[in-house]
Amino acid sequence: MIYFRLIVFSILFSALYYPATLYSQTSLPDIQSVAVWGESSVTQDPAYDKQLAIAQARRVALEKVVGSYVTATTHVRNFQVVEDRIYSKATGFINDYKILQEQRNQLHRIQIEAKVSLVPVTEILRTSGLLRKWRVGVILSPDLQKLSIMLRYYSQPRIMEVTSNIEAAIGQRLVQAGFKVVDPRHLKKLRNKLQQSDILPDETFSGIDLLINGAVSLSSRSSSGSMRQAVCQIHGKVIRMDTGEIVYQGNIGNTFDGTTLLVNRGLAMKYALSMGNGMLADGTPDLRTFGVGDTAALDKAIQLSSAMVADEMVSQISRIPSAASATIALEIHGLEFSQLMDLENHLTRIQGVSNVTAEEFAGSIQNLEVEFDGDAMMLARALGKSAVLREMGLKVRNVTKNRVVIKKY
What we know:
With about 400 residues, the protein is α+β, with helices and mostly antiparallel strands. The chain is built from 14 helices and 14 strands.
């Protein structure tokens, strides 16, 4: 019976996970190219003026990139951190640039295309608490295609325990990095819905910004004598729930040949050294795991891959731009048209709201689009505390991932 439930869950999970190419690799870029202008006053030294214009353009390029990761409110509140730790080191974060245009009139102006290194910038923002506090859900499942192989080494409960432990390792690393991990009880409801249908309703994801889902596979083979060699791989992806965009997809883990790396070389080196493996003959970091028996070898592989996937997910999530406001549909029932202006003015004064657009007024239903620095649930909470809405006799009735419905009492 347990085996049957495991098979059913894996089939349902594969319907969600496997439509994309299983072994394709999608990741966020390490470098972002931006085109910006810099300028300086004109003196009798054109070379010096050009140097100042380029220096300003570099800073503008960095400001543009940083601005896509932090909100205006966060930027102002923590300006000193941004100023001291990032903007003052603009040159160090720009790998390369090329001059696109140059003008010398009343001002010396130069347009450059700069390549900004995202990893060090986002790491400083993350450690300074300036990145968005993404709320991440983690749901893994045994790989259906490797399930029969895994059952040779572990019982059904142990396979589920391994999967759960990898989820926990990812969650723990995300929390350490300053992100939020969704309550496991909420994920339990999501798992139950997946067992019933592979269609994921909007309300299932309320409270989830990013969903990490994937499949875990384990395998072992004979090495020398009584020694066994094992691999653990997590085929996963990260979905941004407000847009449905897959921001990362790929395989993480170790391989039997040792020379094929499923993670970047820096991360591979870190964990090869932590295991005391060092380098292979061709210079590849050695991520192979061995043990006396399948269990010993697999346990090492699981521990290794859990740590690597957790680090990789933190790195990928840190590089997701988040400053752009979400567009949330606000559906209002029972509002008089004469009250529309007052409501729009009130909405623009709510912290985090940058713009309100009236879409249509049909009968007693008013549709607005609200650009908000947050999600629908956060906006609904702000509206629920509004005295103006209470005076209008309005109350929040329903919230999904991108829509808030408000009705008369």
